[in-house]
Design goal:
By secondary structure, this protein is an alpha/beta fold. The chain contains six helices and seven strands. GO terms for molecular function: hydrolase activity.
Length: 269
């Protein structure tokens, strides 16, 4: 809230809370865990007093306490607080992970979708070298990677249900209110040193998504730094892998992209 005036904060809080409520109502029925795993809700301590970070841990059904398991940390949803709040939560999460005996810290990967993909990329470059864990790969689905590009300039030749310009401005104002921070590597992965990312990076780009041009440019930047980059291109709109919107859902695109992630994890981890 420090970077917003009081009334800016109230306005943004009301709008975003309403959007989250609507999203929760319409997506909740789809939150059915796979029968092939067991999940447990945990509360990770935050650096902020009396605050915790909620997280779900998914265990294989045959898990025993004697096993050390590889770990994929996935970010779901958009950040609750402006920069650098989300990155600080990621740092607190990494610190908690390193204190747990059940994880194989030599086999860790990060992933995320949309704003979660942005955070996965930022965490993989900005925090990776501060911890003992070996973050081998990062998987980012249709992330925004450059906040410095005005929303009006984010276009694709054949857009499919593009995010409205007004909504993009809202997200940018809420998350990165200071214009000078929009080229910071902590907000925009495009401005991080390419060699700071893990060796393996997978970027999923949707044909009708306005973020696709910057994703393609980001992938080329990583390739020039000899990162093992796989830009997976799927047909559809931003979020077309999600069943929550039947008009945009593309099962074949989801299955193709997810199978690529599984194959990569099996090889790398």
């Amino acid at each position: 809230m420090a970077d917003h005036t009081f009334w800016q904060y109230i306005r943004l809080k009301v709008i975003v809370t309403f959007i989250r409520l609507i999203n929760y109502i319409f997506t909740r029925p789809h939150f059915t865990p796979s029968p092939t795993c067991i999940r447990k809700l945990i509360r990770i301590p935050s650096r902020d007093l009396n605050r915790f970070i909620n997280a779900w841990i998914y265990y294989p059904k045959n898990y025993t306490d004697s096993q050390k398991l590889p770990l994929v940390i996935n970010w779901h949803g958009a950040p609750e607080h402006p920069l650098p709040g989300a990155l600080e939560d990621a740092e607190d999460t990494f610190r908690w992970v390193e204190g747990q005996r059940i994880f194989d810290l030599d086999r860790v990967a990060l992933s995320g979708f949309s704003s979660g993909g942005n955070l996965a990329l930022v965490a993989s470059s900005e925090l990776r070298r501060e911890f003992k864990m070996n973050i081998r790969a990062v998987y980012a689905f249709y992330p925004g990677v450059d906040f410095s590009i005005p929303p009006e300039e984010k276009k694709v030749p054949e857009p499919i249900r593009p995010l409205p310009v007004s909504f993009q401005h809202l997200l940018t104002e809420a998350y990165v209110p200071r214009v000078e921070d929009r080229k910071s590597p902590k907000a925009s992965p495009m401005y991080a040193e390419a060699i700071s990312f893990p060796e393996h990076v997978m970027l999923v780009a949707c044909s009708g998504d306005i973020f696709t041009p910057e994703i393609e440019a980001f992938g080329k930047k990583l390739e020039r730094a000899d990162r093992d980059v796989d830009v997976v291109r799927i047909q559809g709109a931003h979020g077309c892998d999600k069943t929550t919107n039947p008009t945009m859902f593309r099962a074949e695109a989801r299955d193709f992209a997810y199978s690529k992630v599984v194959q990569s994890l099996q090889y790398i981890m």
